[in-house]
Amino acid sequence: MLSEWYMEYEIEVNRPGLLGEISSLLGLLRVNIITINGVDEGRRGMLLSSEDDEAIERFELIASTMEMINVRKLRHPKLRDILAVRHGRYIQRDADDKKTFRFVRDELGILVDFMAEIFKQEGHKLIGIRGMPRVGKTESVVAASVSANRKWIFLSSTMIRQTVRSKLAGDEFSDNNVFILDGIVTRKSTDERHMQLVREIMRMPSIKVVEHPDIFVRHSEYTMDDFDYIIEIRRDDDEEITYEKLEENDRMSGRSGMDFGFNI
Questions:
Q1: For 164-173, what is each residue's pLDDT tens digit?
Q2: Which of 8, 94, 161, 253 could disulfide-link to 100, CB 3.0 to 4.6 Å?
Q3: Where is the DUF3388 domain (predicted)?
Q4: Pseudo-torsion of CA 181, 182, 185, 189, nearest 10°?
């Protein structure tokens, strides 16, 4: 049975023909190279495939005797490995919270690719997205849904105008859909039918995306531990995500009569 592997190696002595020698050795062991790319300064990553896991073990043993390279990783590929080879670098991960991933607005292409790979998976996945207004949260989720060939359904949103859904119909209840909700809009909703719909969707084996998850879990039966992934989007690395500003903007919008919300 064909299995995939990820190898990352550090170049200790860079000389002409090194990559060719490594490729030839893998070929002799009947290990196929799917993709290769630089993933960090002085490091290369490879996605490999082989019908014989022992061939991978033999390569690892031989590579350990080579002075030109130092194999840092050799494992079945994780999502971050696949994306690192595809885009030439690793996506940023929080050092303390391993399920939190950080992006800046210039990296939306990588973010869309990252979420699309998650959306292609089967079963329940709960994803939270943090970010200030107009940083690309909703647009990225919609683009990732398209890339993953999934239909997206807004349960609550402010993308065009404030929307609060209280019921779904027909194929909108499909497990193959991506369900999107705005945590601020849902949390301030007084419509019990909307909250019941949210609970029903949360129990489905499907993809759910919650913008502003920290506000969504306030005074609710959900906690941040329920989330499988947390994604943070900033305009730049130094931008602070503050919910005080978001809530103040929401209060000002309500007082100015600019809330064009409607229930469905």
A1: 999 998 899 9
A2: 94
A3: 71-253
A4: 30
